[in-house]
Design a protein that fits this description.
By secondary structure, the protein is an all-alpha fold. 69% of the residues lie in helices and 0% in strands. The mean pLDDT is 93.
């Protein structure tokens, strides 16, 4: 009898429409199985020329609830099809990862560091996008003191960049000022 993963993989491969295919990928993304990689590879091969569909492909992978998700997100950002100056791709990967709170708020602060690193990299390429993805990092008053301290460290690191854009500086300073007021 086929495994659950085999059945979902078969559904992804035989889907008659994109909704069914992405539903199957949405299930497989959380599983650490060869079927996941094969299904995502096949979907990419089929849809790689369609930028909007690729955004979905990136997003489905960035939302995974697996221990290796941080590495997966970093790998996605190095993928040849990922264009960091394309706002939709940045949102598909970074916003999706950030809004999946369990991994963004990891106890070791690795999710915060990833977001801060991305903001710093984007700041010189597209300060508007950098400023737009930064707000989850400045909501430190909503979290325990350990996470808040990790968030403050990353905001402080961002603010330490001498040639920081006005967009990012304003968002980061607003976060720090809110923290001091609390």
């Amino acid at each position: 009898e086929p495994s659950f993963e085999d059945m979902v993989f078969a559904h992804a491969m035989n889907a008659k429409n994109m909704t069914d295919a992405t539903a199957a990928l949405g299930i497989l993304t959380h599983r650490d199985t060869p079927q996941r990689k094969d299904a995502f590879d096949a979907f990419y091969q089929k849809w790689q020329s369609n930028k909007l569909v690729l955004d979905k492909w990136f997003s489905l992978q960035a939302m995974a609830d697996r221990p290796d998700i941080l590495l997966q997100v970093q790998t996605l950002m190095e993928h040849p099809a990922f264009v960091i100056t394309n706002p939709n791709m940045v949102y598909a990967v970074i916003r999706t990862f950030v809004f999946y709170l369990v991994h963004f708020h990891a106890n070791d602060g690795s999710g915060y560091k990833l977001l801060a690193d991305t903001v710093l990299k984007l700041d010189v390429l597209n300060a508007q996008i950098a400023g737009r993805i930064l707000p989850p990092l400045i909501r430190m008053n909503d979290y325990d003191s350990g996470r808040a301290a990790l968030m403050i460290n990353e905001i402080t690191r961002i603010l330490g960049k001498s040639d920081l854009s006005k967009n990012v500086r304003e968002v980061a300073e607003a976060g720090i000022n809110t923290t001091k007021a609390a």
